[in-house]
Amino acid sequence: MTASLNSSINSGWVDYGPKFRTPGPVCKLLRLIAFAAVADLSPPAMCIAAWAWQSQPAHRLLLLFNRDEYHSRPTQPAGWWAAEEAEGKEILGGRDELGGGTWLGCTRDGKLAFLTNVREPSTLVGAKSRGELPVRFLQGNQCPLEYAEEIAKEADQYNGFNLVLADVHSGNMAYISNRPEGDPVVQKVLPGFHVLSNSAIDCPWPKMLRLGQSFNRFLATQDGAEFSLQEMVEELMMDPVKADRSAVPDTGVDPDWEYQLSSIFIDTEKGQARYGTRSMTALAVKFNGEVTFYERYLESNLWKENLMQFELEMSQWEDLRGTSNISPKTR
Length: 331
Description:
This protein is an alpha+beta fold. The chain has a single domain (about 15-330), classed as Penicillin V Acylase, Chain A (4-Layer Sandwich), CATH 3.60.60. The chain contains 6 helices and 16 strands. The protein has helices spanning about 25-40, 130-140, 145-150, 205-220, 230-235, 255-260; strands at about 15, 20-25, 45-55, 60-70, 75-80, 90-95, 105, 110-115, 160-165, 170-175, 185-190, 190-195, 265-270, 275-285, 290-300, 300-310. The strands form 3 sheets. Strands 3, 4, 12, 13, 14, 15 and 16 form a 7-stranded antiparallel β-sheet that branches. A hairpin with a 4-residue loop joins strand 9 (about 160-165) and strand 10. The protein starts with 12 loop residues before the first strand and ends in a 20-residue tail after the last strand.
C-alpha cells in the first residue's frame, strides 16, 4: 500500500478575548451530561485522511480530512485560537468543546498536526484526551520526530491513536501510533501519497484504498492546473459508497457497525444517536508559502463553509523549495 499510494463559571464560559471563548467547567459538565444521555461513549471518533506530501508541482502539501463523530458532541468549527502554552501564538483548527483539543490544526510558522483514533472493541477508563496531542506539538518548539519520540514514552496513557506531525519549513513529517499496545510505532513519513484512517498508516482497508486511488486520479487529471479545494472535497470526501461486507476489516467491533463505518462519508445511527461525518477539511500549502484552509462543517443540521487563507512566516519570504528573497505576493 505504501508503495502504491506513495466567561465566568456562572455563565459557563471562560472568555480568553475576542478570538477565543471556551466552555467553563459548568458548561462542560452540562454538555457532557447531555451528550452521554444520547450516545454510547465507547466508540471513538472515526476519521480518514489522505495527503500528498512533497510530490506535487505546485504544492508542498495537499491534505484532505474527514472528521466523523456523534452529531450531539459540541464542537467549534475551524478558526484561530490562542495557544495556551505559547504566548502570542495562534492555532488554526476546529475545537472539541468537551475535551478542549483538536483533531487537525496548523500554525503560521508552518507546523501541522492531525489525529485519528484506532478502532478497537474496548477503551481505557481514565485515559488522557487524545485531542491534546496535536495542540502540544503546535504550541511547542520540537521537530516532528522529537515530539513523536517524547509521546512514545507516555503512549500507554492514551486510548489508541494515530498522529501525523509536520514542519512544512524543514520538510519533515513524522507518524506515531500507540498500537499495537505496548510497542509504539514512530517513523518518518516519506514524500508521496498517504492515507490514514483507524488503523495503521497506509494499510489496505477498503475505504483507504478507495480514497487513495481517487485522490491520485483527481490530481493526475488536473495536470498541474489550478483547482478549488471545495471541488476536491465535493468529489472525493462526500463518497457514501460502503465496502462489501466480506471485505470490511475485523477490528473486534460489531460487524454491522463496522460496515456502517466503511464509507469515506458516513451518515448513520448508533442506538438513538446520529453519527457520521461532521466536517470535511482540505488544506493546501504552496511552495511560495501561501496556505488555503477550507472546511465544510455540519451545524444544526445545515452544512456551512469556512475558507481561510494566510501566508507562512518565512525568513525573507524564503521559498519552500529553498530559494530565498522571493515574496509570495509576487507569485
